[in-house]
Automatic annotation (TrEMBL), chains A, B, C, D, E, F:
InterPro entries: RraA/RraA-like, RraA/RraA-like_sf. Its EC number is 4.1.1.112, 4.1.3.17. This is Putative 4-hydroxy-4-methyl-2-oxoglutarate aldolase. The keyword Iron does not apply. Coiled coil: none annotated. Catalyzes the aldol cleavage of 4-hydroxy-4-methyl-2-oxoglutarate (HMG) into 2 molecules of pyruvate. Also contains a secondary oxaloacetate (OAA) decarboxylase activity due to the common pyruvate enolate transition state formed following C-C bond cleavage in the retro-aldol and decarboxylation reactions. Keywords: Magnesium, Metal-binding.
Amino acid sequence: MTTEAADVVRPASNALPKALRDKLMRAPVAGLSAQLRKRGLNNVTIEGVRPLLPGVKMVGTARTLRFVPNREDLFASHGGGYNAQKRLFDAVGPGEIIVIEARGETGAGTLGDVLALRAHVAGAAGIVTDGGVRDIEAVAAVGIPVHAAGAHPAVLGRKHVPWDSDLTIACGGTTIRPGDIVVGDDDGVIVVPPAMAEDVVDEALAQEDEDAWIATQVAAGHRVEGLFPLNAQWRNKYEQSRAEEPNR
Amino acid sequence: MTTEAADVVRPASNALPKALRDKLMRAPVAGLSAQLRKRGLNNVTIEGVRPLLPGVKMVGTARTLRFVPNREDLFASHGGGYNAQKRLFDAVGPGEIIVIEARGETGAGTLGDVLALRAHVAGAAGIVTDGGVRDIEAVAAVGIPVHAAGAHPAVLGRKHVPWDSDLTIACGGTTIRPGDIVVGDDDGVIVVPPAMAEDVVDEALAQEDEDAWIATQVAAGHRVEGLFPLNAQWRNKYEQSRAEEPNR
Amino acid sequence: MTTEAADVVRPASNALPKALRDKLMRAPVAGLSAQLRKRGLNNVTIEGVRPLLPGVKMVGTARTLRFVPNREDLFASHGGGYNAQKRLFDAVGPGEIIVIEARGETGAGTLGDVLALRAHVAGAAGIVTDGGVRDIEAVAAVGIPVHAAGAHPAVLGRKHVPWDSDLTIACGGTTIRPGDIVVGDDDGVIVVPPAMAEDVVDEALAQEDEDAWIATQVAAGHRVEGLFPLNAQWRNKYEQSRAEEPNR
Amino acid sequence: MTTEAADVVRPASNALPKALRDKLMRAPVAGLSAQLRKRGLNNVTIEGVRPLLPGVKMVGTARTLRFVPNREDLFASHGGGYNAQKRLFDAVGPGEIIVIEARGETGAGTLGDVLALRAHVAGAAGIVTDGGVRDIEAVAAVGIPVHAAGAHPAVLGRKHVPWDSDLTIACGGTTIRPGDIVVGDDDGVIVVPPAMAEDVVDEALAQEDEDAWIATQVAAGHRVEGLFPLNAQWRNKYEQSRAEEPNR
Amino acid sequence: MTTEAADVVRPASNALPKALRDKLMRAPVAGLSAQLRKRGLNNVTIEGVRPLLPGVKMVGTARTLRFVPNREDLFASHGGGYNAQKRLFDAVGPGEIIVIEARGETGAGTLGDVLALRAHVAGAAGIVTDGGVRDIEAVAAVGIPVHAAGAHPAVLGRKHVPWDSDLTIACGGTTIRPGDIVVGDDDGVIVVPPAMAEDVVDEALAQEDEDAWIATQVAAGHRVEGLFPLNAQWRNKYEQSRAEEPNR
Amino acid sequence: MTTEAADVVRPASNALPKALRDKLMRAPVAGLSAQLRKRGLNNVTIEGVRPLLPGVKMVGTARTLRFVPNREDLFASHGGGYNAQKRLFDAVGPGEIIVIEARGETGAGTLGDVLALRAHVAGAAGIVTDGGVRDIEAVAAVGIPVHAAGAHPAVLGRKHVPWDSDLTIACGGTTIRPGDIVVGDDDGVIVVPPAMAEDVVDEALAQEDEDAWIATQVAAGHRVEGLFPLNAQWRNKYEQSRAEEPNR
């Protein structure tokens, strides 16, 4: 028997504007990485994590959650019941991606299938943790994109105390601020500062178009000299080609 | 031409009682982990290993095998011919899981397809090694559950000398005694001391039932506050629900 | 619009003789490893790499490419434009396997889909890198066998400067000389010195035949004692069997 | 020419009460570790750090400082000038130990000789960082106890952005709260929750007395059976000995 | 007050014959390593350990002690009181070196000053552990040579259960059998199979003599070509030199 | 008996001009690091190495030597006799620092006391290796500055084949070209591109002067706000002070 959801709370939406989200869904993480590099940002990748399911694209805004190392007295005071982790999973809203600082510690889960489901029902866009995931088969089946450092059957208390949320955190070697844009695919997970997101994605999509055209030339047998990257001569051909097929 | 199996030896069975085995087959490793934690056992996971095939459940009793580091003089005296590894694979019986101490060394295989087949024919319930596996495609095809640290084409002598068996060993950071119960799924591999197995699995299955009911509430849109874990109010609803559907 | 491939250059072929290549395609890497070990070669495996797609066999001759650590002044002078990486991918010929020394550094890609395509069109037999791969989904779809240390969205300049090619390099803990034979499957990637390749593969194939026959005996229920490896008695049976079915 | 210190600010003292501090100065970290273990606290050691100078005892209360990973845009906004690190070193008071969360990252310094001197002049009792130290020779000469993960010549901006202070942090695998008692010697650095400090140190000193007496028995040639730990018979002798020499 | 040592037990001596021991005391570990390599033994070094005090030479025969990973139920049954560690330290005899298998785990001590003193009083020749040492300052002061992976204040139970002794173990990546000869200096610790010890040390000392003479030539300004190693011409000069000063 | 040094070859000097060398001897590596960072060079540190003796300053120009992983067939052909390592140590000239690419492999020595002595006699300014050193006590006593990853008794053949020299190499995570300036102290080892060396060292020495003055202010009790780094007000005082004591 299921109980009526009399206590469901719908949080205000921090989701990205649809147009921006749609563009980010089309831009590969590798392309975003290249554009961020041009702006001097080289350390914006969340490393050491893999997607639970291949071929899944993830786009959203960061909701941060910090776990500190398990210290047995602090777990007793802060770890149980309606702790910081539970509170954050109840608070997450549509379009948000929960990013968990688990210090690269793979010796415990940092979430399981119940919380993955909770986030999914709340409309969250994804979960990223540089720690472990338990119930991994069930979590993958929930349908929410998840990137993690691996599987582990233990509850988080084996290695962590959930401490606080909605603060700047470290995850997979980079820093994430609440509201940062987070994008993930099979290449990895990247953080895009919101202020530059429109420019970055527009340039990334333009570069994808160029790279796709370059790929067709390579498929035809051309060498990459002068072609990748485009020299003046090849760039002319590319621009000419775009003029002829503007809707490609 | 195949020779008649005139030399087949059927060892006495150390397999688990069927009822207990059936319950362990239904209990996720994550659930067993949580119950063992309640009994003060937090370091019972074999870490750094992955299943060769996803979605395969493994339950059995441990048959232990220890490899020591390759020292060239000791490999000459102990490594070849009918060594400790070969003898153990010949001795394994139905329902047993061979657990190999390979010290986390991934630079060599610790078994290949011939021995995996031998164990499978003997009715072994699985193989766990914190070292490598060679002929990994063929081993996966044999049909016996295997958890390992990775693939490597080299024979074990590159890094190991098979030394002894049927003693207490270390594997993946925990300790396994002969006869310990070993359970594996996609979350990992866990060791269950036999004396507490019945209580642990019964409580794990009860908790699974509770967690499944909680999941349906979450799916209906409820927050996890008070629900996960169950407070008094939610626990009443759960118990009421169980009374109404006792065979769920 | 695609441009005519007026600038396609067909390199001279360094591909293996067809007969040798066919034999190597049938010999598992584990089998080659065992034969090389008999010749005193134990450190010929490229470690820390995994195939992008399972079940793909790779055979070819090495074309080497060395990346040195990114030093910002050297990237400025050597990293852009038609750099050592681009030049090597333009020069690769049929049957060759590009082997990249990336020092086990997984924090950047070392190639992407455009270059993977270029190599494929040129008839290269594969790519091995002990660094990362970007556009990994697209690279896997190109159709050329690739073994790498993982996925990463960043361009190589984040961690590397492409420096030189066609020299002896280190990759995954072993040494590769230009022209060395490289073979890969799900067990890993191995290097076979050309001078011994014919003997090694012939013995490996003979051993496979022996191991296959041993496996059928094991499947029939026989113990491995005296059988694996074959003692005199079992060897007689094997030789008898081969005489009866010479085309097996 | 030195300027008059017209701007020196003397912070209020958070130093330990002298009597407690004196007892902690006499209690080896190993002894405190054993007593904390008896209270169920096993994960209270700051690991991966070494003292700059051997034979130096450090006792104080924690003042915490968190560095997050260097993200180039965040370093531009938060890293320079009078940043969180500089502010904390100006704020530290007598008897306090600055504990820096540097995520075990050894590829940059986290402080140098100027700040070490500042802390020393302010009466700080020590500095602990799980990152690097630059100007290490000069820092060691300042006279303030320092425990770090190693030396590195680079400024912190190479790997970090100093972010905030006076919050709960992670350091060397354990958790430190502002005001926690921190004790260091050649065995390592340990965290003592203030509420239990008096009991823990009193029991540690009592145990030291017992262990010292045990050591004299061992020096006289006695076996450790029954002696270490003391059985009833040996305990009687010990208590008798203490009665005879109460001021030992 | 100290009690008379009525319970001191003197074990039978397993110490090396004095002449062999004296020669091993004069042979650098690097020299022994080179001679063992000539006999095909390349994996005989105990790695990851450092001497507590520089400039101390250690020679003896191995007494082995194995620690398995801490599993909380097994520590309860096997870890306390007069456990395997205590029993072995009581049993060690003159000239023996206690070698502890601690699996490279540095997160706990594996011995402290009381047991180091016990071993020293019993005439043990040294202690080697690939784990940690607590009371490290006091242990260094005891006077017995100790090689360890580092310092840690925690008792062994944090990470280990002492399990058994006088069996073949792994330590620092090699294998040690009871009775193996163990030699340590600032270069490291090496294992010498007893059967070859006389030949190995004689050849090592002869090579030291040769290397010392080579060094004097180098000091005089000669190039190493033909000199290191000695070609026929230089070997003549060396032999001539030895003939002139036979007692050097 | 020592032979006359009839075969001594004095190489041409690649040593730094004396004035530049003297300035670099006075500039701490940390200061050089800060100036290189200002020029956009952040990855110029040779990491994972420690000086054999504390308090020793090292300045010179790089002579590079590359070791590739030991592959048993290649060691047979290239590893023995007058190999690439021996040839380079014979060729090194005054003021040069031998930098060895040993891929961070600590499981073998990469030089011993005979070659350290040879380099010292030849007037080399130092040796840097990201591998091990054997005969470490003797090497430290030779008198030439050495930075290494650790001690190991084995000859280089255990893990390496010396392959070539005088080419661009990787060492400790950065890239070194022949002729690059190399500076080492207790903070680490840094690479200075020759073209910018004069400017870098002049600015580093100026900054040292400023930092020393800042330190005296801190010693007098001043806070670091506005002082470190100098704001306009404090800068005035500094410049005033320099005017009053121009020879400080």
